[in-house]
Each structure stands twice: as structure tokens, then as C-alpha cells.
């Protein structure tokens, strides 16, 4: 479980092609560093959808709190020796959800969201990347309604409590039932159910990344004026990259989905030089994996630019299949991504060859 703003440090030249441009880089910031692509209309925590499992009931309340409460604060994301802080303001009013996230370390970045529309502000380029897609960031957690989680994780609600950002919280563990995914240890506000801290743990229970509030205000103390961007964006370029739904299986791609994962979306978007990159996103309700497919370019691509890389819980595996690069990335064990990449087959129809 990661935080907005670290994609640029995760993808050197042997990762996602730099030719995808700033618009896709910003999209990756939103995708890989946040909990995203929850399907519109799935109201986590609605009484009609609450299952009997007390663990799922609690997780859905955590998701509902992230969407429905007014809160502001500073949280820190730690990945190995790297630590990055962000300020979040989230308010629900008559127009719906309004949110602003400001990066406090590294290159200036802001993410301003109104319901399903997110603006990624890149000041040094005087650029705004517009995305019309819901993106549930920390303290959001679920990628769907959560009903499939007990099939893949054992949920343990501890009777002991902890204290984060001056608030008492309940400790919950999500223990994976196989080696295809990491485990999680979270702490939820005992009064509001808001997620205060989340740790990703490996099979040895070692923490490989974590995110936690340092300070937090909830309720009427949250000031709506803090939603306004600190940048004067008049005259900035606004870019909205069009996306098109695709069916990769019909296009000849046989991509093995790990047990317990299901497809959330399949889209394509333009790259430079008129080419396109396709993306498949799969999830088990907590973890997400993205598979990117882009054409190989003999003139610009390094044929040796493949293999694995890791930063904290984020793993990447890239390989060449036929005349394409396939890149699998996600906060799952490296072997899970390697299995996807190495077992993927491309069998195009005769007309697509």
C-alpha cells in the first residue's frame, strides 16, 4: 500500500518506456501509488452489501470512512530508507467529494480531485493532467466491495490497541493464504474507523513499506479553503489522454491471472509517434497488478532493457514477447509478476499479424 508521488523514482530506463510521456507518468503516479479504480457505484459499507464476516464489515467501514468523513492531516510513506510526506485535505459537501493532496518532499506535485475527476498538477512543466476516473488514495483501502478478500486472506482483528497521531486505533492483520500476495497490518481509528496506518509485510512478517498519519483532524475543524491549490494555474496546459476500452484476449493476449485476482479494467491510450500502450489491471480487492503492453521500437528500444527491479513492496518485471514489451508491476511478490510475464502468450488472429 503506497502513496502518491513515487513513480518517477521507481521506473528507470529499464522500466516503463520514457516515451510514454508526462501524461502516462502522471497516470502511473495515481495508479501505482494509490488505491485506485474502485468501480463507480460500489458504495463500500452500504447496508445492503455488508456480509456477515466481521473482518469485511470492518474493512468496508474503513473504506466508507475514507470517502464520507471530513479530514485533513499529514502522512508519511516509508519505503526502505526513503521517506516522503504528503498533506491531504478531504471534504464532503453538497457537490460530493473534494480532495487535495500536496507532496511535501521532492518535486512539487498536487492532486486535486472532485468526485471522479482528478487533476495532477506538475508546476515545473506548467502542466495539468486530467483523469476522469475514480482514484481512492490513502486512507482508502479497498479496490472493490471486498467480498472476495476472505478467499485470499485471513482477517484477524486484535483485541489490543495502538495509538497513531494521538488517536487510539484497532490493529487488524490480513494474512495471505498463499505466496502470490503480501500481507498487511493496519490500524483503524477506534472512533471513526478511518485508516491511520498501514504496513505491507512479507512472508517473514518483515515490514517492507508503510504509510501512517503523523497529524490528523477529523470533522468540522477541517477548513474548506485548504482545498484550494497553492499554484496559480492560469495559462497552464491541460492534457487529457483519451482512453479506449479493449479486450486483450480478443487481440491475442493470453495473460495468466494469479489465483484470487480478477480484472478491473482493460484500456489503451496513445503514446508518442501515434503508437498505443495497452493496460490490464487486476486485483484481489487489496493488491493490484498492472500489465502494460507496448510495441517494441527497433530504432529506440534497448533489447536488453528487461528483467526485474524492486523498490519496497513495488516489484516490476519486464520482458519482450514477439514485437512487444510486456511490463508487469504491482505491490506483490516478485515471483508473482515473473510468472505473469513469463507465462503470457501472444497468439494474434491472422488479420492482426
UniProtKB/TrEMBL annotation:
<comment type="similarity">
    <text>Belongs to the RseB family.</text>
</comment>
<protein>
    <submittedName>
        <fullName>Siderophore-interacting protein</fullName>
    </submittedName>
</protein>
<dbReference type="GO" id="GO:0030288">
    <property type="term" value="C:outer membrane-bounded periplasmic space"/>
</dbReference>
<dbReference type="InterPro" id="IPR038484">
    <property type="entry name" value="MucB/RseB_C_sf"/>
</dbReference>
<dbReference type="GO" id="GO:0045152">
    <property type="term" value="F:antisigma factor binding"/>
</dbReference>
<feature type="domain" description="MucB/RseB N-terminal">
    <location>
        <begin position="57"/>
        <end position="229"/>
    </location>
</feature>
<keyword id="KW-0574">Periplasm</keyword>
<dbReference type="Pfam" id="PF03888">
    <property type="entry name" value="MucB_RseB"/>
</dbReference>
<dbReference type="GO" id="GO:0032885">
    <property type="term" value="P:regulation of polysaccharide biosynthetic process"/>
</dbReference>
<dbReference type="Pfam" id="PF17188">
    <property type="entry name" value="MucB_RseB_C"/>
</dbReference>
<dbReference type="InterPro" id="IPR033434">
    <property type="entry name" value="MucB/RseB_N"/>
</dbReference>
<dbReference type="InterPro" id="IPR005588">
    <property type="entry name" value="MucB_RseB"/>
</dbReference>
<dbReference type="InterPro" id="IPR033436">
    <property type="entry name" value="MucB/RseB_C"/>
</dbReference>
<feature type="domain" description="MucB/RseB C-terminal">
    <location>
        <begin position="250"/>
        <end position="343"/>
    </location>
</feature>
<keyword id="KW-0732">Signal</keyword>
Amino acid at each position: 500500500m503506497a502513496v502518491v508521488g513515487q513513480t518517477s523514482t521507481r521506473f528507470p530506463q529499464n522500466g516503463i518506456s520514457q516515451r510514454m510521456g508526462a501524461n502516462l507518468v502522471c497516470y502511473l503516479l495515481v495508479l501505482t501509488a494509490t488505491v485506485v479504480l474502485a468501480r463507480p457505484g460500489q458504495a463500500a459499507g452500504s447496508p445492503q452489501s455488508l456480509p456477515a464476516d466481521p473482518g469485511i464489515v470492518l474493512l468496508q467501514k474503513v473504506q466508507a470512512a475514507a470517502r464520507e468523513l471530513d479530514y485533513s492531516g499529514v502522512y508519511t510513506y516509508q519505503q526502505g530508507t526513503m521517506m516522503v510526506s504528503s498533506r491531504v485535505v478531504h471534504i464532503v459537501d453538497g457537490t460530493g467529494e473534494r480532495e487535495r493532496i500536496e507532496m511535501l518532499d521532492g518535486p512539487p506535485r498536487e492532486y486535486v480531485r472532485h468526485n471522479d475527476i482528478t487533476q495532477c498538477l506538475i508546476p515545473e512543466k506548467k502542466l495539468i493532467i486530467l483523469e476522469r476516473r475514480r482514484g481512492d488514495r490513502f486512507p482508502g483501502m479497498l479496490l472493490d466491495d471486498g467480498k472476495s478478500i476472505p478467499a485470499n486472506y485471513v482477517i484477524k482483528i486484535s483485541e489490543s490497541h495502538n495509538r497513531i497521531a494521538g488517536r487510539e486505533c484497532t490493529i487488524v492483520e490480513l494474512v495471505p493464504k498463499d505466496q502470490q500476495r503480501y500481507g498487511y497490518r493496519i490500524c483503524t481509528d477506534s472512533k471513526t474507523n478511518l485508516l491511520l496506518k498501514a504496513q505491507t509485510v512479507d512472508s517473514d512478517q518483515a515490514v517492507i513499506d508503510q504509510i501512517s498519519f503523523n497529524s490528523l483532524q477529523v470533522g468540522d475543524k477541517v477548513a474548506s479553503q485548504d482545498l484550494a491549490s497553492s499554484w496559480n494555474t492560469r495559462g497552464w496546459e491541460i492534457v487529457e489522454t483519451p482512453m479506449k476500452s479493449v479486450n486483450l484476449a480478443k487481440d491475442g493476449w493470453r495473460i495468466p491471472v494469479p489465483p484470487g485476482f480478477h480484472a478491473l479494467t482493460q484500456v489503451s491510450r496513445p503514446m508518442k509517434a501515434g503508437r498505443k500502450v495497452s493496460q490490464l489491471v487486476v486485483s484481489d480487492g487489496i493488491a493490484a497488478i498492472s500489465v502494460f503492453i507496448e510495441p517494441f521500437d527497433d530504432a529506440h528500444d534497448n533489447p536488453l532493457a528487461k528483467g526485474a527491479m524492486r523498490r519496497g513492496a513495488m516489484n516490476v518485471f519486464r520482458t519482450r514477447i514477439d514485437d512487444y514489451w510486456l511490463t508487469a508491476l504491482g505491490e506483490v511478490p516478485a515471483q508473482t509478476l515473473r510468472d505473469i510475464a513469463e507465462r503470457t502468450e501472444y497468439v494474434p488472429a491472422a488479420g492482426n499479424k
